[in-house]
Specification:
There is one protein chain. By secondary structure, the protein is an alpha+beta fold. Among the domains are: 131 residues, no CATH class; 214 residues, no CATH class. 45% of the residues lie in helices and 10% in strands. It contains 17 helices and nine strands. Strands 3-4-5-7-8-9-6 form a seven-stranded mixed β-sheet. Strands 1-2 form a two-stranded antiparallel ribbon. Strand 3 and strand 4 form a beta hairpin. Helix 4 runs antiparallel to helix 6 and helix 13 crosses helix 14. The longest helix is centred in the first third of the chain and has 75 residues. It starts with 50 loop residues before the first strand and ends in a 10-residue tail after the last helix. The relative contact order is 0.07.
Amino acid sequence: MVLNMPNTMTAPQHPSTAPINTPDQLPINRWYGGPYSFEPPAQQPLANSMYAAGTNDQISYCPQVINGAAEMNQLAQRVDQVERHQFQEGLNARFNQVNTARQLRNLQTEQAKDIKILELRITVFSLQAKLTEKENDERTRLINIEPRTQEEKLESAMKNRSLNRIASGAMSPDLTPVQVCIRAAQMEKLAKLLRSRVHIRGAEYILEAEDAEAWAAKLRKDADATKSEAKSPVTRGRKLAPHQMLAAQHVQVSKAPDTQIKVEVLKTSVPETDNVTSIGQGWQPAYIKALPCLPAQELQVVPSYEGMHHFDRSFLLTQLGGTSWSPSFYHVPEPERSLLPDRGYFILEAVHEPLGPVTPGAHGSLLTPILRLPEVGNPTTPKPESMQNAPLFVKQDDGYVYYGMYTFLRADRLDIERCDAVVPSHLKDFWAEQLTSTHRPKWVTEALQKHLLPQPTYSGPLPDHADEDQVNAGLSRHMTAMEIWQRDTHLKTAFLRPENILAAFSAPDTGAEMSGIRFWNMALRCDGWDEGFYNMMVREEGIWKKNGSRDGEGERARKEEMMTMLRPRSKRPKKW
């Protein structure tokens, strides 16, 4: 029986059968053995055929009976594949487990090795220090120096350029006893440092140390004599300006404490910018000398040299926090809990800063051969505001003295003649050892690499002016040049010695094997002496000592060391 299908209907299709549009894609007619033809339906035995052609040139397929054995075979193959996949996953999981256990054992072994290496390194450093001390004592014993009188030592000290810079203006009558004592302490520190390095330059350092000790003794003697001549408590601890001397003559001295001394008000007006004293320093940039000193009224609250509190270094680093970001400057990140969030502070060693402030409230400058300053808009560096109105502490005797709030103004590179005239030889020796130390910061090593050999710059085509292949080739060449530069400069910096840095201090800017290294002068302006900050720090140090004198710097160093050992070796920073 033949069904007459309407022209609007389409013959059903099997899901796996696609519409056939060309003769070579037509199915084979099993009755005639050739491709199907689109002739009128009357010419084809539709009743006996398993195909039916519609009026829209489409062919429908009548499904056949599925073979049960073939289906079972396919299911068995599928089950076998699933089992094989599960077995492979089990093997991979077991392999990962064994590999993880092996890596854990290797990491534990490496940590044990690192701890042992660290202990051995500490032992070696202590032995080297003892050996250096023994060598220094032996060298000192073997050097024969003719005995000299005190006058001969003082005469020799007057001719020493380094000592003259430290004691600049020490013989001036305008200096206060505090300033004279500070210069004497600086010379004593310098003498101690020179005697510990006799093995480097021999008799030259011994003679210079004797000169410094003789001059320091004379300065202390003169300071004691000046203080003994003081007739009024008002003059205690600082030199008076002319208007202050006039006020002291009208003082009514009583037997009551100093706080009850009554001073008559002067009829003459005192200018607010009047200076307490003319601070006799060594060389300073012209713009530093042109800065007005703090008003006399602000410096009246500064304690005397005997009454000035000396802070412990561990307390400063624990209370203020932060980390060393550049020489003598510590930056406190904003998230850190501190009295100075997102700010900084200066900690100076008087022996290593010959141009630093000589008294609290005085302007000064720092010397450094490696300059590192904050950058505007760079999130990896501190903000420039962190070096404004920052506390400054200077090492004196057994502690650090608060000198006031200071602001960094500018940095200038000194030429070779100015470096020879301003920078003493012991400071060059100090920086030569610092720059070649194995414990130097990573940024110092990177600065030395760029100084030894300029870093390659990309000179290839840009994406907007060349095709992708040319840009990729240019980037590949640049990466190869960077790898070569990194390898060569890393090797050179690893083998740097103090004598190489000392030679670079005297080398010209161009034409030498290692281009010259110059010192930078960082100008610091004193904005004031904050009495409230000083009293708060004194009070907090008393609480800190009662609580056990916690060493914040040591805790941070131990934490960083532990984190370094716990990092995977592939991500561990290089140890210089």
